[in-house]
Amino acid sequence: MTSADTQEQQTTAPPPPPPADIAYSGQYSVNPLAEVSFRRMCAQIPAVLGRIARLSWRTDRRAVQLLLGCQVVTGVSAAVLLAATARAMEPVLGDGSAGERLRGAVPALLVVALAAALGRAAGAVAAYAERRITPRLTTETDTALVEAVCRVEAAAYAEEGFSDRHEAAEMGVIRTLVMVTDAQRFLSALIRMVTAGGVLSVLNPVMLPLLLLAVLPAGVGAVLTARVDYEIHYANVADRNVRGMMRWWATTPKYGDEVRANSMTDYLVYWYRALSDRCDRRTLAAAPRTLRIALLSSLAGGVFLVATWAALAWMAVTGRIALAVAATAVIAVQTTLAALSQVVINGAAVFHTSLYLSDMQAFLDDAAARAPKRGPRELTAPVEEIQLDEVVYQYPGKDKPAVDGVSLTLERGQILAIVGANGSGKSTLTRLLTGIYLPDKGKVTWNGTDLAEVAPETVWRCTGLVPQIFAQWPLRVRENVTLGQPRTHDDTPVWEAIDAVGLREAVEDLPASLDTLLSREVFGGSELSGGQWQRIACSRALYRRPGLLILDEPTSQMDPRGEHQIFEQIKDIAADRITIVVTHRLENTKIADRIIVMEHGRIAEHGTYDELAYGGGLFAELLALSTDR
Ligand SMILES: Nc1ncnc2c1ncn2[C@@H]1O[C@H](COP(=O)(O)OP(=O)(O)OP(=O)(O)O)[C@@H](O)[C@H]1O
């Protein structure tokens, strides 16, 4: 094929298929707003204000007191301002020379100026108080969300819609940035509206209902628009969730090589854009609805507003109200109208926020309900014996158990190797052994105690795990080793753990040795190679000196010298603990006292290396394949 052919093929090739439609089904796929009436939506606002007040109160009581004080001052000054304006109008529009009329109005005008200044000052102080509350409130809610996710039973991650609801809850955190401002503006507008409306009612009782009618359609429109916005947000949750994850994988420098050398960029960008377009399409499809809402509400509001001004003009012209009263009424109408509009806009914003806060709260409640509740017993070291008795575990949504009736006894000092094909249940078995998952059937006991009755932290204090895929924490070398078990300020045990995995030279070569930040992305940070990172993960597990040490493919990225050193180390420290090695490199199972071979979630074979290697079974077959090159 010539290069021209290739080029032609490239230009005529059909575009790649768009990303699959991502949606989840089941109880969480229904928009909670779909069944809520308009009245119930409005009725939520006081409850939301109450919730915002409680959250703020917990964050900074003094700032909340200051904020409420400012609201009272705002209201009082608005009322005084209008009343004094009315009083100033009488001499201004009365008889006498211009000088006399002005002199007569001066005391009332001074009160007007003072009230206006006080109102402005209260507004400024309220903004200051709000700025004191918001950052800490956002941090509180954000941290609460992170903590809730870290503390749930790990099994919850595999459940339907968990991650999407987590994504929806993140929006609640984002909304806390504007929530106090919205609530504060809503309250202050409400107070201004009540006081100005009160003054207006005193001047003439017909004006207020007319004004209310003028603004009400805008309120209905704003709430309906918020509802449409939320519907779109809800429909886009799953797409946004995946897009967010893809964005991270595509742009993080850690996977930059893979993206480039596999020419993934075009498709990733296409894919990212396709997902964004799909979100946009949903948003655009709703635009005519929001336009209709805006036009109808403006039309209805406009009709009533014209009626209000016409009524005022008619009453003044026909002498039904005095000219001075009419002049004050104009100001009162303007003030009430402005306040009412603010009430509507900020009320809708509070309502809008409430939708996302409800998602966040629902997720936090759900996460709290999924926090481990396993019983109050505590485990005490050392771990002498771990037993699995006919253990079964099935992931949600799967039709077959990942671990299916496994019985096993492990004793202190033993090394167990677990081998088997991909997906045969090895990692799931280690999750059951460590109590990360509780079995659906059967039981796992440590020193004779059922893990279902034990507080999990006391179990995890005795475990050390090097998982297949481990995190590369953007922390200093020292914390990367001690993470999970910061002991003392003495670096000796840290260096011992680093020596144990043969990493001393590499750490000493780093710009700040143990103090070097391990993150290439951060200014001043350094990066390790894949194998060096894996040594760090091993050193972390060794540093913990755990009663149960689990190594899941611990040396897959290491050079032979590193691998040899790690396995020598495992043998050296094996007497004090139970050690489990999960591996596909069957040669490494020679260090084990016992090997189990997993197949379809069951133990297909078990024995020593020699028994299995020459036993003519599955292990022998896999071993032969691993040397057949
Ligand atoms: N978080 C999960 N949610 C749903 N199913 C899962 C999850 N983790 C594993 N599984 C399924 O459980 C089965 C066993 O997986 P497991 O990870 O235990 O296998 P493994 O033997 O460790 O495989 P490998 O050698 O590839 O690491 C597989 O069918 C897998 O698809």
Provide the descriptors you would attach to this structure in a database record:
single chain; 629 residues; alpha/beta; ABC transporter transmembrane region fold; Rossmann fold; 2 domains; 6-stranded mixed β-sheet; 4-stranded antiparallel β-sheet; 19 helices; 10 strands; binds adenosine-5'-triphosphate
Could you characterize the architecture of this molecule?
This protein has 629 residues and is an alpha/beta fold. It has 2 domains: 330 residues, ABC transporter transmembrane region fold; 244 residues, Rossmann fold. Helices cover 62% and strands 9% of the residues. A 6-stranded mixed sheet has the order 6-7-8-3-9-10, sandwiched between helices. The radius of gyration is 35 Å and the shape is elongated. The mean pLDDT is 86. Bound molecules: adenosine-5'-triphosphate. The site of adenosine-5'-triphosphate has 13 residues, from helix 11. Adenosine-5'-triphosphate (ATP) binds next to helix 11. InterPro entries: AAA+_ATPase, ABC1_TM_sf, ABC_transporter-like_ATP-bd, P-loop_NTPase, Type_1_exporter. Its main location: membrane. It comes from Streptomyces cupreus. One of its GO terms (molecular function) is ATP binding.
SSE layout and pairing:
Elements: H1 3-12, H2 38-59, H3 61-93, H4 98-151, H5 162-203, H6 207-235, H7 237-251, H8 256-261, H9 265-317, H10 323-369, E1 385-393, E2 403-411, E3 415-420, H11 426-433, E4 441-446, E5 449-450, H12 456-460, E6 463-466, H13 477-482, H14 492-500, H15 504-509, H16 530-543, E7 548-552, H17 560-573, E8 578-582, E9 594-599, E10 602-607, H18 609-613, H19 618-627
Parallel strand pairs: 3-8, 3-9, 6-7, 7-8
Antiparallel strand pairs: 1-2, 1-4, 4-5, 9-10
Helix pairs in contact: 2-3, 2-10, 3-4, 3-5, 3-10, 4-5, 4-10, 5-7, 5-10, 6-9, 6-10, 7-9, 9-10, 14-16
Biased composition (Polar residues): 1-12
GO cellular component, one term: plasma membrane
Organism: Streptomyces cupreus
